[in-house]
């Protein structure tokens, strides 16, 4: 199948960039997706992006989001990608209302997107698989290290100076640590700056590099720093991309349970629209 003439939308969600396709007629060659997605996402030879998003029909919700990392591997979910596909669905009139529900590999999500504004709010599935502290890893420069799955797996490591941290080297090392590999984990390095603010840098699996932002990573970071007694909701997360994400949730009454009603708010912007040619 030739892809020439196929339209796409380039979007930025909180600093992550995505190539978005309307795949309701199932034209996208899912069997050859690994090589195709890797070509599309490669800067200089393709469109260039952190990931590819497909919007497909779903019988039990408004639509389904299919997510491919830049290496061509399919992943169940991406927070910033979900912000983008929710706004894309409204801009393209695929959903008639600002409130919508859509399916992912991590379950059903609810979002609110106003087509006139880039701000989108996403209600996440309940977080799970908490490890509050890995004391054996808490050696300088790490003050705290924990793990939480916020629809994708995340290690969160607290440091004093996140700006000077070796995100590439340490992110690659921890991402493949035997505790989490296979399938590996995303790694977020954070520093607090008050009770309602974090600075975060993220090493993403599948991209295998530092990215400008990570929505589910911001969510995991806000919840873990809350459980460590360092922050309280709402938490504004400052990312490398410079576009803040806000994480809000209901603190649990029982200290042995995780927060509920977890919400992620961030910007989903259309960068440009185009058509594929010689890819």
Structure summary:
The chain has 279 residues and is of the alpha+beta class.
Spell out the key features of this protein.
single chain; alpha+beta; Diaminopimelate Epimerase, Chain A, domain 1; eight-stranded mixed beta barrel; about 280 residues; globular
Describe the structure.
- This protein is of the alpha+beta class and 279 residues long.
- The chain folds into two domains: 7-124 and 268-272, Diaminopimelate Epimerase, Chain A, domain 1, CATH 3.10.310; 128-262, Diaminopimelate Epimerase, Chain A, domain 1, CATH 3.10.310.
- The protein has helices at 33-41, 79-91, 167-175, 215-227, and strands at 7-13, 16-22, 51-56, 63-69, 74-75, 99-104, 107-113, 119-123, 128-131, 144-149, 153-158, 186-192, 197-204, 209-211, 235-238, 245-250, 260-275.
- It has an eight-stranded mixed β-barrel with strand order 1-2-3-4-6-7-8-17.
- A hairpin with a 4-residue loop joins strand 13 (197-204) and strand 14 (209-211).
- The longest helix is centred in the N-terminal third of the chain and has 13 residues, at 79-91.
- The protein is globular and about 55 Å long.
- The protein starts with 6 loop residues before the first strand and ends with a strand.
- 43% of the residues are buried.
- The model has no long low-confidence stretch (mean pLDDT 95).
């Amino acid at each position: 199948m030739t892809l020439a003439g196929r339209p796409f939308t380039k979007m930025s969600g909180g600093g992550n960039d995505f190539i978005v396709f309307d795949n309701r007629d199932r034209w996208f060659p899912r069997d050859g997706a690994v090589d195709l997605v890797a070509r599309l996402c490669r800067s200089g030879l393709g469109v260039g992006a952190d990931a590819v998003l497909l919007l497909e029909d779903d019988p039990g919700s408004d639509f389904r989001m299919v997510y491919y990392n830049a290496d061509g591997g399919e992943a169940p979910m991406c927070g910033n990608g979900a912000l983008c596909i929710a706004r894309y669905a409204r801009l393209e009139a695929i959903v008639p209302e600002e409130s919508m529900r859509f399916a992912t590999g991590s379950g059903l999500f609810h979002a609110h997107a106003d087509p006139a504004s880039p701000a989108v709010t996403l209600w996440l599935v309940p977080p799970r698989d908490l490890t509050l502290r890995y004391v054996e890893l808490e050696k300088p420069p790490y003050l705290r290290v924990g793990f939480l799955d916020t629809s994708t797996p995340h290690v969160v490591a607290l440091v004093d100076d996140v700006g000077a941290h070796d995100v590439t080297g340490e992110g690659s090392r921890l991402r493949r640590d035997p505790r989490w590999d296979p399938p590996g984990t995303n790694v977020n390095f954070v520093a607090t700056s008050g009770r309602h603010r974090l600075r975060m840098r993220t090493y993403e699996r599948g991209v295998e590099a530092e990215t400008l932002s990570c929505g589910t990573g911001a969510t995991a970071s806000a919840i873990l720093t809350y459980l460590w007694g360092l922050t309280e909701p709402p938490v504004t997360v400052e990312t490398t991309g410079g576009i803040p994400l806000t994480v809000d949730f209901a603190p649990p009454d029982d200290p042995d349970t995780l927060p509920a009603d977890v919400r992620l708010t961030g910007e989903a912007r259309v960068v440009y629209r185009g058509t594929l040619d010689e890819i």
